[in-house]
């Protein structure tokens, strides 16, 4: 059998990904020594690097290279009750749940139906859900017991600020980072002028008391979002000139009538709002840049009954995984819903400049979930040769290190450490290791996704050259130490695209 590094030999499952992520230091269960906290994971040292890579790539595209102003903020995850009264989350941010009458296990009712019958039950009424459960005799997956009538469960975590516990001190952990942006809107306009279009971006933690967290990083109670709220005049939602640069980009889209097509952005105009297409195009670019398989990305128009309460159009990004498609980003046209609600509830104006007028802007929002992207990256890039050897083919932009440095034998340690220091000082992210035989060290670097390894051998002492080994091609080249940092940078740059 000839090993072909470009060919995936055996299919990677969610269990493989979970095991790999835990064993290789990408994630740890939160409060592991006390039995864990369901729906929460800690980022381990490798995960922190992966997270950083995604955040940088997204910032480059959604903030730094944009043709209109994008202001970044970093807000408090804990917000007063008034914010969520205005936003509608207190009233409407809930999921249907059922409980087993025998073993008391709880389930998110629409997802249970989805799993049992393979139908989309999101957004159905409690009556409809109850009827489907009865008619299909859906029972508790754990013990086979009878399920209760469905009821609504609000997903927000509630707490109190200060020692007095009453409605005035009620506060909630934000279920989306977006609300910080809406409540900061007026100050941003006052300080920065605020001529439309402009955007406010934020990345941070969001919290949802999910009824049944599951599938590792897919449905969490503590997770991270990268959101942008784009503020425009209503007519700019349909005619958005920054979209022009993406006209020729192709997107795979499932329309709400059920038709799936791969089409150029220019041909989707008129069917999907320009501002939504703009962010879908940016997302497809981002997802590819961080190593999500482009053939497994699809955008899905969400039917009205399944849209969030604030949205009048949603085109969500989905990624195909070993257990089905999963939404990784929600792209919503939130109209003037949020700004108007906050204006009413806070009794202030929420306007910006448009030409010589003051108007309440309309909002388009791309909301990307970081952990779901990380899961997809791990699954799409983890390869198993069928003999237990795993390679994580991370793109350099999200790899935990740029390069590993190994001495061929321990005796060469001082030289290898000198080279490690030189590479680190040149700005590269370097990992040094001298445990075991060289083959084992390569395998170790492959498993955590380091794209390149430098080996220091006896010739290094004689002629000042080292070997660079490429994780993906396994090709090796000999380079002089004085050219090493530049050559590594060059290889990484070529692998980025
Ligand atoms: N501000 C809009 C908003 O929050 P959403 O569709 O509810 O929209 C956006 O969430 C993204 O956040 C999702 O596409 C997903 O990637 C991520 N997300 C939402 N709930 C999550 C959860 N329980 N666990 C992990 N990621 C989640």
Summary of the model, kept short:
This protein has 497 residues and is of the alpha+beta class. It is built from 16 helices and 26 strands. Strand 15 and strand 16 form a beta hairpin.
Radius of gyration: 25 Å
Major pleated sheet:
9 strands, mixed
Please report the number of helical segments.
Answer: 16
Q: State the total count of DSSP E strands.
A: 26
Bound molecules: glycyl-adenosine-5'-phosphate
Q: Which residues form runs of ≥5 with pLDDT under 50?
A: 1-7
**Biggest sheet: strand arrangement:** 3-10-11-19-16-15-14-12-13
Strand content: 25-35%
Instruction: Give the structural class.
Output: alpha+beta
Helix share of residues? 25-40%
Assign an overall shape.
globular
- Distance between the terminal alpha carbons, to the nearest Å? 31 Å
- The averaged pLDDT comes out at 95
Structure in words:
This protein has 497 residues and is an alpha+beta fold. Helices cover 34% and strands 27% of the residues. Helix 3 crosses helix 11 (337-346). It is globular, with a radius of gyration of 25 Å. The strands form 7 sheets. The chain has a 9-stranded mixed β-sheet, sandwiched between helices. Bound molecules: glycyl-adenosine-5'-phosphate. Glycyl-adenosine-5'-phosphate is lined by residues 176, 178, 208, 210, 219-220, 223, 225, 227, 327-330, 365, 367, 369, 371-372.
């Amino acid at each position: 059998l000839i090993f072909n590094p470009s060919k995936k030999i055996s299919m990677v499952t969610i269990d493989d990904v979970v095991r790999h992520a835990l064993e290789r230091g990408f994630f740890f269960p939160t409060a592991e020594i006390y039995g864990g906290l369901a729906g929460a994971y800690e980022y381990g040292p490798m995960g922190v690097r992966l997270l950083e890579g995604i955040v940088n790539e997204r910032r480059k595209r959604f903030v730094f290279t944009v043709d209109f102003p994008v202001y970044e903020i970093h807000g408090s995850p804990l917000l007063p009750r008034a914010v969520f009264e205005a936003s509608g989350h207190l009233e409407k941010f809930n999921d249907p749940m059922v409980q087993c009458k025998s073993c008391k296990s709880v389930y998110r009712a629409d997802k249970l139906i989805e799993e049992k019958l393979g139908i989309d039950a999101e957004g159905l009424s409690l009556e409809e859900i109850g009827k489907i459960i009865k008619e299909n005799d859906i029972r508790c997956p754990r013990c086979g017991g009878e399920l209760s009538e469905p009821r609504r469960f609000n997903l927000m975590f509630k707490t109190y600020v200060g020692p007095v516990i009453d409605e005035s001190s009620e506060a909630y952990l934000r279920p989306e980072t977006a609300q910080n942006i809406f409540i900061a809107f007026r100050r941003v306009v006052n300080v920065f002028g605020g001529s439309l279009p402009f955007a406010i971006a934020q990345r941070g933690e969001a919290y949802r008391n999910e009824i049944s967290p599951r599938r590792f990083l897919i449905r969490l109670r503590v997770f991270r979002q990268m959101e942008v709220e784009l503020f425009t005049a209503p007519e700019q939602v349909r005619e958005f000139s920054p979209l022009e640069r993406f006209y020729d980009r192709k997107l795979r889209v499932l329309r709400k009538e059920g038709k799936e097509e791969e089409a150029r952005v220019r041909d989707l105009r008129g069917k999907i709002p320009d501002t939504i297409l703009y962010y879908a195009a940016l997302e497809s670019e981002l997802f590819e840049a961080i190593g999500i398989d482009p053939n497994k990305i699809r955008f899905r128009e969400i039917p009205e009954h399944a849209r969030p309460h604030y949205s009048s159009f949603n085109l969500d990004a989905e990624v195909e995984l070993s257990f089905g498609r999963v939404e990784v980003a929600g792209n919503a046209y939130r109209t003037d819903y949020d700004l108007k609600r906050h204006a009413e509830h806070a009794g202030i104006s929420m306007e910006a400049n448009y030409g010589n007028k003051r108007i309440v802007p309309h909002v388009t929002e791309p909301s990307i979930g970081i952990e779901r992207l990380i899961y997809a990256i791990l699954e799409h890039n983890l390869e198993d040769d069928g003999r237990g050897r795993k390679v994580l083919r991370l793109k350099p932009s999200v790899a935990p290190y740029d390069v590993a440095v190994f001495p061929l034998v321990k005796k060469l340690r001082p030289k290898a450490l000198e080279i490690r220091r030189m590479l680190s000082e040149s700005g590269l992210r370097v990992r040094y290791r001298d445990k075991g035989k060289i083959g084992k060290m390569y395998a170790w670097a492959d498993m955590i996704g380091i794209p390149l390894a430098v080996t220091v051998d006896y010739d290094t002492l004689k002629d000042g050259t080292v070997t660079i080994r490429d994780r993906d091609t396994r090709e090796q080249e000999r380079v002089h130490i004085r050219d090493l940092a530049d050559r590594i940078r060059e290889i990484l740059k070529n692998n980025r695209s």
